[in-house]
Design a protein that fits this description.
single chain; alpha/beta; six-stranded mixed beta sheet; four-stranded antiparallel beta sheet; 10 strands; 32% helix
Amino acid sequence: MLRIVDLDKTYQTGDRALKGASMEVSGNEVVAIIGPSGAGKSTLVRCINRLTEPTDGEVWLDDTELTALSKRQLRKTRRDVGMIFQEYGLVERLTVMENVLSGRLGYLSNWNAFRRNFPAEDVEYAYETLDRVGLADMENKRADELSGGQRQRVGIARAVVQRPKILLADEPTSSLDPDTSRAVMDLLTEIAREESIPVLINIHEVELALEYADRVVGLHDGEIVFEGGPEDVDEGARDVIYRGADEGVAPGAGAAASDPDDEGVAPADGSTREL
């Protein structure tokens, strides 16, 4: 189970992107985070595995407090957190198979990782996963030869072969056409069910969130202002999430704090974008 407790993030610019966010994700549920640009959606997802360092608060994965780990401990624990990036996060010059198997690097010794010497069972599982995501017989293609949808499937396959305890997806459909977006969401929800892995998705497309998510979390100005089922996201809930109207947001709240991750700008604290 993922548990987030009073998570805060203030960038060096002074922008407060998260304000005491708390939530849980467990079982095999698919949870969608929605909200306006700059609300803190990407920051929330990226603070979980400390690609962006939170300013305050706690993040727990089962009995491990991720926010209390040293950098050395964190490298090992990140094996349990699969990450799917908006920009795919692939090494363009490497093959599909090499990119997928990079999800197993955290399990190898430094020497074997350097030589990319993977156990036979890891290679077999990578082949099975490529078939599962619809990329059978494409293992030898370079990543830069693929379409956007195919690249995103490679990113999903890489995350799955980690055998993580949770999958995080940061805008996985934002650069894809509608049909491909649905195929990617089909794949993510299928993986959640079959592998019993919870999936937390930061997503702009509200209708996709309502169609695929078991639960929806709404962010506005760095605060969680809504949490409920897709059927609960009515006009009033959308006003709270996107306009800060009515209950859930303090009266007179100003414009959303700038969220560098949401806008595609490198965070001011120098956080990296890849594992």
